[in-house]
């Protein structure tokens, strides 16, 4: 089965420096020296030879077609095809003159491995959909191997700028992440619309779905292994330099994969997923007027309008509640979002309501939940994920 929705048919796509619909921010990251260049499509579908234009600057030379053939805007040379036009300027080092500046195609920058060709991706059955788009099961030709993948595709060809920006932000965050407990990112298909992110295929469910549907058969040891996998994934993310802040940690964003046919404890691997809200760095400001998941939000981060590693630690504490409540329910289930805001988030310390530990939660896990959710003047006493992983691993080994 071939790739869907391919709109770029010209043979210039065969160049190893063809980068599809690459945003300016990513072009700036690739082009660091004079006369370095790539070939890409701009947001308006124009085909462009994009060159280094100086520090934090790029120059775009549009490829245009008329009755005589293909030419660069403002330049005289004409060739029968876009490929031959690029080859002419590349092989002859013909000067490209624009506003007195002289550029030449001397050093092509190869397409990064995570920019995937639509020809190497096959779509299969639909797995689910939401406001962001549709998720398919599919296959990816990775070298000489065909592997199962999940393909997260934006809906429709008329993609909103915000959707596109969020997709690229998620892709940039995930590039280079390699850990058993973090869902693997293979790349983004950007030579066709709508764009797609290609991820590791997970044969299980999200943790919240698993607990809703199969929680009755899940003992404390299995639940502890779930939080151990989450802790290991978060430890890895926070250990990067600069660190990755997930900022949307919850059981809905933890996925279970089974390394084998049987759903046994030894075969279960939990992976951190969904990096749509993630940031990289020690600290970031946030817009508290934007919709957010208040039930998992650190009240201190809301008041300071800033997020850091401890923001994720607080969310992990809430996630512990989710994993050990029987039967499963989301935090503050009997409260509206407005009541959560009024009773937990935007309220003086003395009146703030705490999330109660679930009945039957192991004492050691309950103590960890309390430590993760310390606030106000005790916020800095929250443990790091390095400490959390050690604590949970020790609890698990004793079970």
Topology:
Elements: H1 24-30, E1 36-41, E2 47-54, E3 57-66, E4 69-72, E5 78-79, H2 82-92, E6 96-98, E7 101-103, E8 107-108, E9 115-116, E10 121-130, E11 133-142, E12 145-154, H3 161-174, E13 185-189, E14 196-200, H4 207-214, H5 220-239, E15 244-245, E16 254-258, E17 268-272, E18 279-280, E19 284-285, H6 299-304, E20 306-307, H7 309-324, H8 337-345, H9 363-372, H10 385-397
Parallel strand pairs: 1-8, 9-13
Antiparallel strand pairs: 1-2, 2-3, 3-4, 4-5, 6-7, 10-11, 11-12, 12-14, 13-14, 15-18, 16-17, 19-20
Task: Summarize the structure in words.
The structure is a single chain. The chain is an alpha+beta fold and 399 residues long. It has 3 domains: 12-106, SH2 domain (SHC Adaptor Protein, 2-Layer Sandwich); 115-200, Phosphorylase Kinase, domain 1 (2-Layer Sandwich), CATH 3.30.200; 207-397, Transferase(Phosphotransferase) domain 1 (Transferase(Phosphotransferase), domain 1, Orthogonal Bundle), CATH 1.10.510.10. It has 10 helices and 20 strands. It has helices at 24-30, 82-92, 161-174, 207-214, 220-239, 299-304, 309-324, 337-345, 363-372, 385-397, and strands at 36-41, 47-54, 57-66, 69-72, 78-79, 96-98, 101-103, 107-108, 115-116, 121-130, 133-142, 145-154, 185-189, 196-200, 244-245, 254-258, 268-272, 279-280, 284-285, 306-307. The strands form 6 sheets. A 6-stranded mixed sheet has the order 5-4-3-2-1-8. The chain has a 6-stranded mixed sheet with strand order 9-13-14-12-11-10. The longest helix is centred in the middle third of the chain and has 20 residues, at 220-239. It is elongated. The model is unreliable at 1-9 (pLDDT under 50). Its EC number is 2.7.10.2. It catalyses: L-tyrosyl-[protein] + ATP = O-phospho-L-tyrosyl-[protein] + ADP + H(+).
């Amino acid at each position: 089965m071939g790739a869907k929705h391919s709109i770029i048919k010209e043979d210039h796509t065969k160049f190893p420096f063809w980068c599809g619909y690459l945003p300016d921010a990513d072009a700036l990251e690739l082009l660091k020296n004079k006369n370095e260049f790539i070939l890409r499509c701009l947001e308006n579908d124009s085909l462009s030879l994009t060159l280094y234009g100086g520090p934090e600057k790029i120059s775009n030379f549009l490829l245009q077609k008329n009755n005589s053939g293909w030419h660069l805007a403002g330049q005289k040379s004409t060739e029968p095809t876009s490929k031959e036009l690029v080859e002419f300027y590349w092989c002859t080092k013909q000067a490209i003159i624009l506003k007195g500046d002289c550029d030449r195609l001397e050093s092509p920058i190869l397409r990064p491995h995570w920019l995937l060709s639509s020809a190497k991706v096959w779509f299969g059955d639909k797995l689910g959909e939401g406001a962001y788009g549709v998720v398919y099961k599919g296959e990816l030709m990775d070298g000489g191997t065909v592997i199962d993948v999940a393909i997260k595709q934006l809906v429709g060809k008329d993609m909103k700028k915000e959707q596109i920006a969020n997709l690229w932000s998620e892709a940039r965050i995930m590039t280079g992440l390699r850990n058993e407990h973090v869902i693997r990112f293979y790349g983004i298909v950007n030579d066709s619309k709508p764009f797609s992110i290609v991820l590791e295929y997970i044969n299980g469910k999200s943790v919240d779905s698993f607990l809703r549907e199969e929680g009755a058969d899940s003992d404390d040891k299995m639940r502890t292994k779930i939080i151990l996998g989450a802790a290991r994934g978060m430890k890895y993310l926070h250990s990067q330099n600069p660190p990755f802040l997930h900022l949307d940690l919850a059981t809905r964003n933890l996925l279970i994969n089974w390394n084998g046919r049987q759903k046994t404890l030894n075969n279960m691997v939990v992976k951190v997923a969904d990096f749509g809200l993630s940031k990289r760095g020690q600290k970031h400001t946030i817009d508290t007027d934007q919709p957010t998941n208040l039930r998992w939000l650190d009240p201190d981060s809301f008041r300071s309008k800033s997020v850091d590693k401890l923001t994720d630690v607080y969310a992990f504490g809430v996630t512990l509640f989710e994993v050990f409540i029987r039967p499963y329910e989301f935090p503050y289930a009997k409260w509206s979002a407005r009541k959560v805001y009024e009773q937990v988030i935007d309220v003086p310390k003395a009146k703030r309501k705490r999330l109660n530990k679930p009945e039957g939660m192991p004492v050691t896990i309950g103590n960890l939940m309390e430590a993760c959710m310390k606030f106000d003047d005790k916020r800095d006493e929250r443990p790091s994920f390095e400490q959390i992983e050690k604590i949970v691993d020790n609890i698990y080994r004793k079970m």
